[in-house]
Amino acid sequence: MHVVLARSRGEILATIFDDHGILLEPAHVIDSLAVEVARRERSARERARWVWDDTSRWYPQLLREGVRVERCVDLRLCHAILRGSALTATSALARSSQDEWSLASPEPRVVVRAATLFDDDDEDGAGPASADPIAEFLRQRAAVGTAQDPARISRLLSAESAGALVAAEIRFAGLPWRTEAHESLLERVLGPRPRGDERPEHMVEQLERVRAELSAPDLNPDSPPELLRALGRAGIQAESTRSWELQNIDHPAIEPLLAYKKMARLLSANGWAWLEANVVSGRFHPDYVPGGVVTGRWASKGGGGALQLPKQVRGAVIADAGWKLVVADAAQLEPRILAALPADRGMAEAGASGDLYAGIVASGAVDTRDHAKVAMLGAMYGATSGESGRLLPRLAKSYPRAIAYVEAAARAGERGEIVTTRLGRSSPRGASADYDETATAADVVRARNQARSWGRFTRNFVVQGTAAEWALCWMAGLRGRLRALGGDIGLVHEPHLVFFLHDEVVVHAPAHLAERVGEEIRAAAADAGRLLFADLPVDFPLTVAIVDTYAEAK
DNA sequence: TATTTAAGCGCC
DNA sequence: AAAGGGCGCTTAAATA
């Protein structure tokens, strides 16, 4: 059963359809959404799927009222997939022109109130909310119906929508963050917190060494052009001031300079200011954007930088007393996806031992584990030169199916065609790099480079996008399993997801349930593998760590 | 002065 | 070691 929710002049309307899309109850006003949702969610018989324009506009309020939703359809996210997918390209939806459903989600206003984060829901705001969700719901069902294998795209839509629920729940619950631990880390690395915006002590010390070694007493190291000039005057010919380039230079100024840069990064990205802005009541609330990346990966927004939390500060992520963090990481996910996509049995076998790269060495394709890794990265990203490019042919010889698969994706992109992930997310169409007889040699070169660059994108798209689908299925399944394990006593009282990082999840769990959480995470990973690849002999092993602090994992 | 772009670096 | 895919954020520099 589907319950389509709409807002109209301050009221909430529900329209109910059965699983075949037949109208059961016409639109009627709901007095209290939380009461209505809670009632239907309790009914084992009904199995409601809530259909709404945008999960981030509906679900946070329900969570604050203590109500969880098992299943939903996020019309905006599903629309984006259906509009672009090769599997539904002939549908009316895909052939229609851009409309309000194609637009990005409007910015929900967020205010800090009483030391808690709230979304300041603008209930009558513009955006998709003003469009008719019933018409869109029916249009999307029709689009799915045009697919040759509707189960495939349906699975993707379910996973995408479940991901939106997960993102909202993670944001609501937050990642346990110990301010004192973070502060003591900052003091250890940077020195005491300075007044105002002065440089911390330890940065000043390193900077003075740099200035002395470069004979540049007034150097501002935060200005790349100025730094480059100072280096030049000291006889250092650097192309840029990037750390990895400076690393190779033998000069007494380099070591303190790199130390300074490292500290400057910590200070500006995750220093005291970050802590004050992003940690509220012992929780960091990641602001994920499901489907925010073309490949289907999540993006994040806001100063929290959820997807870029440096390893350096993860020691501040500490489980509550009596609780544990269960950290699980899908080992070598993308190479395994690459093996699974074309059912490359040889590569799948290489991964069966647990270390895919070691397996590739054992098969004799390359000599060392490092070579295996670099060669695989080259296959997935499209290396054109260097060691990676040289190793690629050896990989192609041993694993022709896998390499042919990504090569085909690259060629398709170069021809201006779209490519599609396992479950049916398609790449955008690249700008065609055509040229005619009037083109100069430079134009031709430019067009060719552009085509190759787009080919590297489509090559990576199928792997990264399918890996993202796997991760969505993994989390969606895990979410259900955790709720069952927790006994439905409330999100933050049960084991619950608190962090996600492309191929890694963190669950905050009562200590006595931590072992069982680990088992559920593994079971969910096995389910995800089957959801994407049925009974193909490819497994997706995990490393699972039960820890008190995130820094202990890996 | 305000906004946009580029450099640099963090994550996968 | 630093090539090749995807991001977001902060700061400084460039532009309006």
Tell me what the structure shows.
The protein has helices spanning 33-42, 55-64, 75-84, 92-95, 133-145, 150-173, 179-190, 201-214, 224-233, 243-246, 254-270, 272-278, 333-340, 345-351, 356-362, 369-381, 386-398, 400-414, 441-486, 514-533, and strands spanning 2-8, 11-17, 23-30, 49-52, 72-74, 109-113, 116-120, 175-176, 279-280, 283-284, 288-289, 299-300, 323-330, 496-500, 504-510, 542-547. The chain has 554 residues and is α+β, with helices and mostly antiparallel strands. It has 3 domains: 1-173, no CATH class; 179-277, no CATH class; 333-465, DNA polymerase, domain 1 (Orthogonal Bundle). The strands form 5 sheets. It has a 5-stranded mixed sheet. Strands 14-15-13-16 form a 4-stranded antiparallel sheet. A hairpin with a 2-residue loop joins strand 9 (279-280) and strand 10 (283-284). Helix 3 runs parallel beside helix 5, helix 3 (75-84) runs antiparallel to helix 6 and helix 15 (356-362) packs across helix 16 (369-381). The longest helix has 46 residues, at 441-486. The radius of gyration is 26 Å and the shape is globular. The chain binds a DNA duplex (12 and 16 nucleotides) through residues 220, 222-225, 240-245, 247-248, 261, 264-265, 268-270, 292-295, 297-303, 305-312, 333-334, 370, 374, 377-378, 380-389, 456-457, 459-461, 463-464, 467, 501-504.
